[in-house]
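Most newcomers find our protein records easier to grasp once they have seen one. Nothing more is needed to start thinking about how sequence determines fold. Here is such a record, shown just as it appears in the course material:
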Amino acid sequence: MLARSNWKYVILFLLFLGWSLGNLDRFIINYAILDI
């Protein structure tokens, strides 16, 4: 049961990491488009 609980947090962390990278990319592109 403990291993299943650990996988839940690993998947949650990976989802948060993907969401953060997506928002960071969108934030950076908004500033980069001014130079482009």
Notes: The chain has one domain: 1-35. Residues 26 and 32 are 10 Å apart (CA to CA).
